[in-house]
Amino acid sequence: MFAFTHLIFAWLVGKGYEKIGKKELPRTAWFLLLFGSLISDADFLIDWTLRTEVHRTLTHSLLFVFIGFAIICGIFYVRKNPERKIIAGAFALGICTHLFLDMFLSQGVPLFWPSLWHFSFQGIGYYDPATPSFLNLGYEHLRRAMKIAIVDMALGTAWILWLVWRRKVKF
User: Fold this and answer.
1) Tell me: the pLDDT tens digits for 99-114?
2) Helix H segments across the chain?
3) What is the dihedral of CA 26, 30, 32, 35, to 10 degrees?
4) Where are the domains of the chain?
5) What does the alpha-carbon distance between residue 44 and residue 134 come to, in Å, rounded to a whole number?
6) Rounded to two decimals, what is the model's pTM?
7) DSSP letter at 131?
8) Which pLDDT does position 47 carry in this prediction?
9) 3-state secondary structure of 128
10) Cα 10 from Cα 160, distance rounded (Å)
11) Alpha helices for 40-83 (secondary structure H)
């Protein structure tokens, strides 16, 4: 799953929350909702730069959702922000939207990490950490995947900038 898809889905969930709850999310909550939908894949940077195999570990688990909620809630508690639970909840919800899409459209996620059982809508499966990741695939496969990812990121960035320019989302 690519970034733009994660952003769109999180944005739709946020709009659904506003429509059902009949109230607007604060700007900070919008930012953290969208950021939360992407943060789980930050471990790709670690894999790519350090040649490790940490993708789809901690950052794709319910533990990460809880840790993210607690950290953001703590930061806004210190700032005495009365909307801290909504803001922290938006961040956690963003992470949950990422996990949901990865469960729906891929081989699954380790919801109860460090357990190696991956949960998806197709079933539950054991993940062998010795399985080579995308970093070990052939050059052409990596090149094609990178092109798709770059186009996806460009579309996502253009979409967010358009929303900001049209004042649909404020940061």
Assistant:
1) 999 898 777 888 888 8
2) 3-21, 27-39, 43-50, 62-78, 84-105, 139-165
3) -170
4) 3-165
5) 10
6) 0.76
7) S
8) 67
9) coil
10) 12
11) 43-50, 62-78
